Here is the input.
Amino acid sequence: MPFYEHVYLARQDLAPAQVEALTEAFTKIVADTGGEVKSNEYWGLRNIAYRIQKNRKAHYVLLNIDGPAAAIQELERQVALNEDVIRYQTIRVEALETGPSAMMRKSDRAERGERGERGGDRGGRGGDRGDRGPRMDRAPREEGAW
Here is the structure.
């Protein structure tokens, strides 16, 4: 059977327990139509790029699905009817990821530090002047130059 990744965004005023109940309901829909949800990930309450139906944040959830196209069609039909879901997207993939998704690996960066392994200095403008030495004082302005 083909593999799919289905991501949906739930309204910001829902509790995480309600989002989990939505995920269980969608998992049951897939199972009833001959598919299987291999894994699901709750990415948390995140800011969205623009306001959708007066929501500035949304709960993000990923479902990795192994199932027929009929299961995906029924899932998308039910998701579209649900008032708690503000956006969704399903894509067909060649293989399902076995480990955590890219969104979950992104949070590992916080454990290493804000800037990763390099540290906080970017070596760009501002801050330390590097090997250029101290800035020379400017000549004082003449009166009436402006």
Observations:
- The chain has a mean pLDDT of 82.
- The longest helix spans residues 16-32.
- The radius of gyration is 25 Å.
- DSSP finds four helices and four strands in the chain.
